[in-house]
Every structure is written in C-alpha cells, then in structure tokens.
Specification:
The protein contains eleven helices and two strands. The chain has helices spanning about 20-35, 35-45, 65-95, 95-110, 115-130, 135-145, 150-160, 165-170, 175-190, 200-210, 230-240; strands at about 1-5, 15. The chain has a two-stranded antiparallel sheet. Helix 3 (about 65-95) crosses helix 5 (about 115-130) and helix 6 runs antiparallel to helix 7 (about 150-160). The longest helix is centred in the first third of the chain and has 31 residues, at about 65-95. The radius of gyration is 28 Å and the shape is globular. The two termini are about 50 Å apart.
Length: about 250
C-alpha cells in the first residue's frame, strides 16, 4: 500500500510507505500549524481562494517533507531496536523450553527486519546491557583469591560468563536459529573495523560457534553409488572444487 502526498501524485518523490506516512502525520500537522501562512501555501503547493496564486517560478520545496520523513524513519528504527531488546530480556527470563523457542523465533524475525544501522545499535546493546556484572566479578575474584576451592571457582566462572552467551544459546532453539546466529556474526564482523569495542561480543559468538561445530563431531563417510540419492544430488549441486555436471561424472 502506498500513500501519495504532494502537488503531483504521479511524482515518485511524494510516494511513501503507509507505515512511515502514518508515523509522520502528527509532526506534519504541528509543522504546518507553526508555519507562516505564505510558507504553508508554498509547502502544500496551492493557494487559498482569497490569496494570490504563486508566481510561475515558485516551486514547492521538498526539503521540509524530506527531513520530516527522515526523522520518522529514524524513529521507526529506534522503536524496532527497543522491541528487539525487550524480546532479548523476555527470552532470557523465560524458563520453559517451548515458550523460549517461540520467543527466539520472534527475535530472529525482528533482527532480520532491522536496517543495517539498527543492527549496529543491537550489537552495542549486547556489549553494554548484556555484559558481565563488574561488581559481581570483582567480588567473586576476591573470594577466589582468598580461598581456592570448588565453590569459589564455580562462582567465578558463573559471573564471568556474559548473559549474551545464554541469549545466543536460546536463540539457537528457534527454527533456523543457528543460521540466524551465523548471519548476526557476519554483520558483526563487517562492523568491527569501525567499532573495535565490539570485539568482546564477537569473542562470545566465536566461542559458542566453535563449541557447537567442533571437528570432533564430524563423521567421515565414503560416498558411493549406495549413498542416498538426495545426498548425491546435493554434491552435484554444490561441489565447487571438482564440478560435477551430471550422473555420468
């Protein structure tokens, strides 16, 4: 659905998505109310019956409307990031496995819908809000320095692990959760050169993915004519080193 606004409905500049237009209505009304009458006439693109028509050289200036929708787009992204943050907290607080899988699926969809700049805000959230509690780490470290036993070691290990690691484990419960986590890390790696403070977040991704995809879990199996046809089809489709054209190869 498209909402067309402006002097020429066929002009592509004045075509905006409905959700963006709806979010900007209040701001637009406020801007028009505070605007001098002559500027309002120029912005709308037509004069009142009691006013003289604009000169032929006068054209509506789109700058006000452009800035308006840019601000609306940023507000929409900020709201999407906030919703994603709330899903993270819900997922971490959920005790049931079935419910957490459903919330994780919502979280994966919400992340996929974020624009690139909003994804950076999500990674900053992981870095700041879901980092280890500094005071608890210091207390546990002090207790371990005073008494080295199983209890103090376990407590130190527990508080040092950031909550974002548990968040990623629970995201992995969603259908396609592993692929979503890999996609998240791909986005994160692209941002590390400009945002080096996110290296700790990347370390958590790398730690979990390394433990899930340990080479020891791999099973080497010979592929021959007795292998399932579906497996052979996949090899023909995806083999890149030695291309396979057909069954004869």
């Amino acid at each position: 659905m498209q909402v067309r606004i402006g002097v020429s409905p066929s002009d592509p500049f004045y075509q905006f998505p409905a959700d963006v237009a709806a979010g900007a209505v209040t701001v637009a009304a406020h801007a028009i109310w505070r605007m001098p009458r002559n500027r309002m006439i120029m912005w709308v693109g037509r004069a009142r019956p009691s006013e003289s028509q604009p000169t032929p050289t006068s054209r509506p200036q789109p700058m006000i409307l452009t800035n308006l929708f840019q601000r609306s787009g940023k507000a929409h992204s900020a709201a999407a990031v906030k919703e994603l943050q709330q899903l993270c907290y819900r997922l971490l607080s959920e005790a049931g496995t079935a419910n957490s899988a459903a919330i994780a699926e919502q979280l994966v969809r919400a992340y996929s819908a974020l624009p690139p700049e909003a994804r950076l805000a999500f990674f900053n959230f992981l870095d700041s809000a879901l980092a280890p509690d500094r005071e608890r780490v210091l207390r546990a470290a002090k207790a371990y320095s005073e008494k080295q036993d199983a209890q103090t070691v376990l407590e130190l290990q527990r508080v040092v692990e950031p909550p974002r690691q548990e968040l990623l484990r629970r995201i992995n419960r969603a259908p396609g959760g592993t692929a979503a986590i890999i996609a998240m890390r791909r986005d994160l790696l692209q941002a590390l050169s400009q945002l080096p403070h996110l290296r700790a977040v990347d370390s958590d991704f790398r730690h979990l993915l390394g433990s899930w995809f340990n080479p020891g879990f791999l099973i080497l199996q010979q592929v021959d004519w007795s292998s399932p046809a579906a497996l052979l089809e996949k090899i023909i489709q995806h083999e890149a080193v030695h291309a396979v054209k057909d069954w004869n190869d």
